[in-house]
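Notes from the pairing session

We agreed to fold both candidates in a single pass and log them together. This is the raw record for the first candidate, unedited. Please don't reformat it; downstream parsing expects exactly this layout.

Candidate A
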Amino acid sequence: MSLLRTSVWMKQVRQFSLCSINATSNRACLGRPSRTKYLKQYKITLMQSDGSTIEARYAAPLHFVRLPLDLRTADENERRQRLALRKPQVKKMKEEVLDDNFDAGDYLKYFQK
């Protein structure tokens, strides 16, 4: 009996929610998450390769996502700079300079009684 009452009540609620008009800003949003598959999405700032930013939603809790630069569309100077940054850096060997002017006589005053 209670199952029947619950189903009748659910039909009334469903009918009521379909008839109501929700005039908020979410109605006009094109990227509104409407699927139940994506339950939790986090707001992120998405930076495109030209420098413009877009507020978006993403499954991981990231604050800022930067899209890579397309090297085919970049100008020649920028393309060279980006490719130079990808090359492995040459490690500079530091040559150790030893100071050979040690004089033991300077330290005799510390060892006398």
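Candidate B (folded immediately after A)
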Amino acid sequence: MEERPATELTQNDAPIKAAKGDSSLLAVFRARSQQIFQDKAAQLLPGRWEQLNTFDFQQLKSQLEQKKPALRQRLECVIGLLLITGRSLDSVLDTQIIKRLERIPQVITDQAIYILSNEPACWVSGVYRPENSRQLTGDWPAHMRTTQDRLALPIPLIYWRLIKQNVLEVAIRVNKRSVPLFPKDYREDLREEMKALLSEANRNTGSRLTVHRLGAHLFNTLNQGDADLTAACLITARVPSFGQQASLYYYAPHMKRLEQHYIHAMETIRQQWTPSSPSSVAEPSHAAAYANASSDSAHHVGSNLVPTTTYVNGLVASMQQQIKAAKKGSTWTALCSVHNAYVAYTVAMLMFSTGYRSVRDPLPSWDNISLSRRIIVIADKTDDQQSHARFLPLTSLMVEQLQHYQRHREGIIERLSFYLQNRWDTPFMFLDHYGNPKEVTPTRLHDQLQWIDSPPLNINRHFLHTRLKESDLSSEVVDAFMGHWDPGQEPWASYSTFCPREYQALIASVIQRLMVQQGWKALKGALL
């Protein structure tokens, strides 16, 4: 599967207006400028112009102190919610107050905000899901991680002080259903007061305050340092300026992991808001336990396609049993069956050790792999410039399996020399009942593997992405392994500081451990 050619991607969406002096050459220049802008935006460098800092917050606090107490209280509440939730001003003004989490509607959007007024306080919102996520059909969803449609996060004490008085005043009126924090007939006035406050601060002090920057500050803070951009998207329901994050389709973290990211980011913002105050680490929220489910296995959000460890272990054992059963036969048909089972096992092992996509001819040439150096080059989804081709380390277990497979393949080719008019160059091939070689395609691989309840073949990528991050590997390393980078973030680009040796040392040991846990073994072929 390939993306569109680079020449097509750089075409201008609007037609050329020759009558106004436009030309195809100018259109190319415009496209190049747009690409340069996208590359810069994709870098997410800290301290950029649109990101707020301590100076901005101190000027905002100074401006707030000049307001009348009643208005200051409401404005502080709005600012606090913008910083706490990372949502837009519209979402903040539509905030609802509840006394019991059971009162939250069954279906809520990722922009909805519900505040539990009991202490320790928390806020709840729907979980962001990327567009065109796969629909759950058939029986295989039962073997995937159970994910929730809402996320509950604690409100740190210092931010609770900003919103507490407003929240408790409204909470008195809460009975069964939720009650809006801000009356509808007052929201527009509050919006104008907020804009006036920021304009005054900018005009008088030279700060760079806007409603959008306040709402995006949590997202930007979550992306500082060795950050996980995918976690930032799930917490704030925002995506980066350069577009959708591919890793959102593959990640299903535990809610406690997201809560740790969130608390760390809120502490950073606290230091900007009140530099001299002591730390106010948020208390673990009792709401998270309810909002997720009763069992720990359900405390996840994100991708619905992350298989459970038990299910993956069962798949590995089933494939090994297929090979063992096929070896018992001695007929020509049995030889073809054991070969096909062995090829499918080796390809599946490669997929679960490298994150290889289920594409036609998984390994098109032996030139793409070096067993002596334990390196494989994968270009399973890329463009004309091979910008998403990636280098991956091979574990000792995978190298041993490929060595066994090479010897098996040579023996099969010798036996089939009469049928093979031309030498079969691709490393992997299936055989039909007559011994004719067949290309390894996703459909043939799916039919041969016979995985329990027939899940999508790409569950290996969902499993690896999530488990690698749960092994405390940095987001940068995981994205380099999975091929989840955007233009301007290529780990192998000319000016990249990404170190291949450190990357290989980090990732290989974790993959080896995961493969052993799953039960993978280096098996000899039928002819050995």
